[in-house]
Amino acid sequence: MKKLIFNKLYANIAKFFLMSLLIMGIIVWTIQAVNYFDYVTEDGHGIKIYFLFSIYSFPKIIVRLLPFVFFVSLFYLLVVYEKKNELNIFWINGVNKVKFLNKIIILSFGLSIIQIILSSYLSPASQLKARNILKNSDVDFFSSLLSPRKFINIAQDLTIFIENRNDDGSFNNIFIEDNRNSSRMIYAKKGELILNKKNKKFELLNGRIVNNDESKINVFNFDKIDLSLTDIKSKTITTPKIQEIKTTWLARCIFKNNLEFEYFICNEQIIPKIKEELFKRIIKPFYIPLLALIASCLIIYSKEFKNYNMFRNLLFIYAFLILIFSEISAKYAGSSISYSYIFFLFPLIFFIITYLIFFKRSTHV
């Protein structure tokens, strides 16, 4: 009977937690995807690139939300169980509160391991994949970005201004500042973009080119020239960030400086950032058992306890402060060795303190 009621509890927790995590993840992903639309409107990437980049960013969102959503799910279900008197089923069948808590803690440690795997491997790999998608993509939304009477500097060292756009897709009165190979200004009365797999160019008609070669300026007119666009690069940052680097590489960098990897060079300047990132990936998941313990403190008192609502609210605030501290501690974990030890031991110390308080209170109620 005990096994049956615990299996039902685990099933309810898993169902509510996964559903809540998915819903919250989709909401946050949707909001973030709107911000990512700048890659299309400002940086010139196509809708396909934008969509793929957004999809590969989803694991990062799940990793960030998982601890909070798990706490809220467990907290909510225990409140519902108490309201419906379903917790009494455990006590009637000989399950004491400490044993109940231990079962929840075991579950939370299992989730911590999953969180470490997600944050250490899946999330960095998916973020790196998203970054490589941007790096390897063409600026294939170029034509739609050329709006009349606006300076467009979508590509590095290339700024374009057009006065108006015709119905056939051509442009009138085009001004271009091209600093890719040399400094030059181009004016054309008319122009047309030719973008396909074989050729990417701006065909310009009836204009003038001003070449600025150091102190020497050359000016000449033309009837027709082709401005190549095959080598244009988006302004999007394509160098991987620390949170996109493999965990094994970051760990090697901590223990041995002056290493050179594919995406970054390990040196003393980036060690604090690497420690901060490793703290997020490996230490922060162990806040999950602490949050589970705080939520489980709800079973110390029943709903008949006159200060039950206040006690419930205080527990929620306590957990919320723990979450805030976990975020703050990650920022400072790499600033010094002493801070690293303090923030490393914090979840363990508070877990032991909270567990002892639970044990004392639950055995005297």
Supply database-style keywords.
365 residues, alpha+beta, 2 domains, 12 helices, 57% helix, 17% strand
For the record, give the distance between the C-alpha atoms at the N and C termini, rounded to a whole number. Answer: 25 Å
Average pLDDT across residues? 81
Percent of residues in helices comes to: 55-70%
Separate helix tally? 12
Unreliable residue runs: none
Structural class estimated from helices and strands: alpha+beta
Shape: elongated
Cα-based radius of gyration, to the nearest Å: 29 Å
Number of strands: 6
Strand proportion: 15-25%
Order of helices and strands: HHHHHHHEEEEEEHHHHH
Number of domains: 2
Major sheet size, sense and barrel closure: 6 strands, antiparallel
* Major β-sheet strand ordering: 1-2-3-4-5-6
Could you describe the 3D structure shown?
This protein is α+β, with helices and mostly antiparallel strands and 365 residues long. The protein folds into 2 domains: 2-137 and 239-362, no CATH class; 142-228, no CATH class. Helices cover 57% and strands 17% of the residues. It has helices spanning 2-36, 38-41, 47-56, 58-83, 87-92, 97-136, 142-145, 247-255, 271-283, 287-296, 308-332, 337-362; strands at 151-155, 158-165, 171-178, 183-195, 200-213, 216-228. A 6-stranded antiparallel sheet has the order 1-2-3-4-5-6. Strand 4 (183-195) and strand 5 (200-213) form a beta hairpin. The mean pLDDT is 81.
